[in-house]
Amino acid sequence: MNLTHKSIFLITCLILICGCQKKEAPTSALTDKKMIVVTTLYPLYDFARTIGGDKVNATLLLPPGMEAHSFEPKPDDAIRVTNADMFIYTNEYMEPWAVNFVKGLNSGNVSLVDSSKGIKFLKAGVEEDEHENHDGKAHNHHAGSMDPHIWLDFADAQTMVDTIASAMSAKDPSNRNYYMANAIAYKSELKKLDAEYKAGLSSCSKRAFLHGGHYAFGYLAHRYSLQYESASAVNADSEPSAATLVALIKQVKAIGLEYVFTEELLSPRVAEMIAKETGASILLLHGAHNISKDDFDHAVTFISLMRKNLANLKTGLQCK
């Protein structure tokens, strides 16, 4: 997700041009004096709009329907962020471009918020000294980089909510109690969700799940003591090798999995190949990086997506 030289050049030119002109007034949708907050990923957008309520105008930088890992900000995005009061990004591993992007805008108005503050990252793969798979052998083909998908551990999600609420309170102290109250209420919902997962996944005949996409569900697996394998590395653009596919097919058969998972906004081709070779069925597991245009228009929430995930996990893991 690094910026290309061409993108940097275009954005730099745009900023120089805009810097010589009077800053544009906000569009009519932003004239209500609400705090304007731009977020990179869908979970941040959902957290920000819930915490901010009617005091905040939260927007999503990612166009609905776009796969998050392939996103690069464009000149229009630079204008949106320049006109914002706050820019919230996930972490340095998910958006390595974010800090330099905002600094390059030369706007002292925009508060830059790293939502991962205080969160301990996991490696993007199975640690050899911590976990073993069903065959007694450690699998480490994704390890080496840090896993950016922190929102899929609901305790980490609560920390993210605290960070966003604190940033909004610092930016708008007069409404601090409002933001904090909304954050407390939302964290209560996340705690309830966490309890539902712990109860729902406590009595499953299978403790392993396999996903035909990129390595996205390590935090979820770690929190609920599940074994997890993905076809590709943490980079969603990567393709599994033939050897990896053969190994995954053997693994599905050895464990006796009846389901394999695919993910949102990416081709289900790999999951379909594994399913065809093993006789398994396919279920969706939503990583919530982004949502479709239809889901966005219907104001689908992060928590509702996670409850659908739980239902599919309970089916896939054959839980009582």
Could you describe the 3D structure shown?
This protein has helices at residues 5-19, 42-52, 75-82, 98-104, 154-171, 176-200, 218-223, 242-255, 269-278, 293-297, 302-316, and strands spanning 35-39, 56-60, 86-89, 111-114, 208-211, 227-230, 259-262, 281-284. It has 2 domains: 5-120 and 148-190, Nitrogenase molybdenum iron protein domain (Rossmann fold, 3-Layer(aba) Sandwich), CATH 3.40.50.1980; 202-316, 3-Layer(aba) Sandwich (Rossmann fold). The longest helix is centred in the middle third of the chain and has 25 residues, at 176-200. It has 320 residues and is an alpha/beta fold. α2 crosses α6, α5 runs antiparallel to α6 and α8 (242-255) crosses α9 (269-278). 42% of the residues lie in helices and 11% in strands. The relative contact order is 0.13. The strands form 3 sheets. It has a 4-stranded parallel β-sheet with strand order 2-1-3-4, with helices on both faces. It has a two-stranded parallel ribbon with strand order 5-6.
CATH topology of the largest domain: Rossmann fold
CATH level-two architecture of the largest domain: 3-Layer(aba) Sandwich
Total beta-strand segments: 8
Give the overall pLDDT as a whole number: 85
Features of this protein?
alpha/beta; 320 residues; two-stranded parallel sheet; 42% helix; 8 strands; 2 domains; Rossmann fold; 4-stranded parallel sheet; disordered N terminus
Strands, helices and their partners?
Elements: H1 5-19, E1 35-39, H2 42-52, E2 56-60, H3 75-82, E3 86-89, H4 98-104, E4 111-114, H5 154-171, H6 176-200, E5 208-211, H7 218-223, E6 227-230, H8 242-255, E7 259-262, H9 269-278, E8 281-284, H10 293-297, H11 302-316
Parallel strand pairs: 1-2, 1-3, 3-4, 5-6, 7-8
Helix pairs in contact: 2-5, 2-6, 5-6, 6-11, 8-9
